[in-house]
Design brief:
Chain lengths: 308, 179
């Protein structure tokens, strides 16, 4: 199968395992491109991509923009704060105005869940979901799974724990879908206040003790405490969170086996993980960033290449 | 669909030998030259040539690599996506004589993509083309081979297929004619 099943990337939920494998093998090729002296390929030179970020993001936007430019695409950036959205323009109007300028692909991050799906039903371009509220963040999950595979070989049968604010995390949900499709065993770990009520319907293990979770796993994906999404207080203090759910070198070294540590970024050093852990040889955080560009190049290449 | 043999196993190995000797004439001991096979099928030609040259020059290391040209093709978004193969170039091409190798030279578009892909790795001193089969009078671009294994006159609906001992059981070149 040399084509993605959909002309959009809205989430991992509706992605088939063939789609995921296709993205991974294409990303492998782009990793090689990123190590050449000339890191560009001309494939998307007649494609225009619009980055619509209605929420702040540096890392994801930079990663997408780099991927687009490395594919020789034309890039237009749209940041919500400095735009007509503040003048009251609707989402569809904003996008249709941009599409009237012949934009082929829209990469969108929006604070409302379902925004990307909504857009895909009303506009005539390929939509890539770069994060919709607390719903999905498919490219993050793909690069996380790809990074695990690069480090450990196969994902099937591996034990992966996602630690932190599961309730507000689109990274967690997309990761759960992706890892389960690839045959991994998944556990979520965090305070009860940050655990979604129906999490067990996703067929994942739930653990509230960090040490037990880390002893069980092969890989730990540490999520950031999302202070900007917390309208009420979910834990007494940051220090208490850190004491119960933060990963430091002492805890890491005391485990019975050497686990791999991941983090989607940006890191709150000293909260979810300490600097020593982030910079240790068990951490693949920087590899995640490198793989992110390759994965995003693969997604854009496969979506742009889909002939109607 | 009918298939006709253009080159049998014996003639195949004679042709490879002859190509190797032609290369030696121009490249001497290959100290300044590298062989690069184009994915997916030029790599087999390149490797077979490298093996034979290696036997003729046991003391020297004959540099040979694989180059994938998928991202430099001119038909992206005009046909079904092609899944790229791996590129493996473990040497620099800067200031080297490059021998680009493909199994069948037809329109020349793959070679054009190959040259563009090659230039992403550096500036070679010289680039030559070795085509195991040259389908004459079929070029879409002004591309000409420097070394030719077998010249054939074909029409567009025909297809030239190269089989290898390693993957298909025997060495041979076939012409597929649509009847």
């Amino acid at each position: 199968m040399s084509s993605l099943s959909s002309k959009h990337l809205l989430g991992i939920k509706n992605l088939s395992t063939e789609d995921i494998e296709l993205i991974f093998s294409t990303a492998d090729n782009f990793k090689e491109v990123l190590n050449r002296p000339m890191k560009k390929v001309p494939s998307l030179r007649d494609v225009t991509v619009a980055n619509l970020f209605f929420e702040n993001s540096t890392r994801t936007r930079l990663s997408f923009e780099l991927a687009e430019r490395r594919l020789s695409a034309d890039v237009v950036n749209f940041a919500a704060s400095s735009s007509s959205v503040s003048k009251g323009e609707t989402l569809i109007d904003t996008v249709n105005n941009i599409l009237a300028m012949k934009v082929d692909i829209v990469v969108m991050r929006h604070p409302n869940a379902g925004a990307a799906l909504f857009l895909s039903r009303h506009v005539n371009a390929s939509i890539v979901n770069a994060g919709d509220g607390a719903h999905e963040h498919p490219t993050q999950a793909l690069l996380d799974a790809f990074s695990i595979r690069k480090k450990h070989g196969d994902i099937k049968g591996k034990k992966i724990v996602i630690v932190g604010d599961i309730l507000h995390s689109r990274v967690a949900l997309s990761n759960i879908y992706c890892l389960k499709k690839l045959g991994a065993e998944v556990m979520v770990c965090g305070p009860t206040t940050l655990m979604p009520k129906y999490i067990s319907t996703l067929d994942v293990k739930v653990e509230h003790d960090l040490r037990k979770a880390l002893e069980w796993c092969d890989v730990a994906n540490m999520l950031r405490i999302q202070l900007e999404r917390q309208d009420i207080k979910y834990f007494p203090s940051l220090r208490e969170y850190m004491m119960l759910y933060g990963l430091d070198k002492k805890l890491l070294d005391s485990l019975s086996k050497k686990i791999t540590v991941m983090h989607p970024g940006p890191i709150n050093r000293g909260v979810e993980i300490t600097s020593e852990v982030a910079d240790s040889d068990q951490s693949i955080i920087l590899q995640q960033v490198e793989n992110g560009v390759a994965i995003r190049m693969a997604v854009l290449y496969l979506l742009a290449g889909k002939v109607n | 669909m009918q298939r006709r043999t253009l080159l049998d196993a014996n003639q195949f190995s004679i042709t490879i030998s002859r190509l190797c000797h032609q290369l030696i004439e121009n490249h001497n001991d290959f100290s300044e030259s590298v062989i690069i096979g184009l994915q997916p099928r030029g790599v087999f030609v390149a490797r077979r040539i490298q093996q034979e040259l290696q036997q003729l020059f046991p003391g020297k290391k004959i540099m040979c690599g694989d180059l994938d040209v998928t991202f430099h093709r001119d038909d992206f978004r005009r046909r079904e996506i092609i899944i790229p193969s791996a590129t493996a170039l473990n040497f620099a091409i800067e200031n080297k004589n490059v021998i680009l190798v493909d199994d069948v030279l037809f329109t020349g578009r793959t070679i054009r993509a190959g040259m563009d892909a090659l230039l992403d790795y550096g500036r070679p001193k010289k680039v030559e083309l070795l085509a195991f089969v040259d389908r004459r009078y079929s070029r879409h671009l002004p591309i000409a081979p420097d070394y030719i294994g077998l010249s054939v006159d074909t029409i567009t609906s025909e297809k030239v297929i190269v089989h290898w001992k390693e993957t298909d059981g025997k060495d041979e070149i076939m012409l597929e004619v649509r009847s």
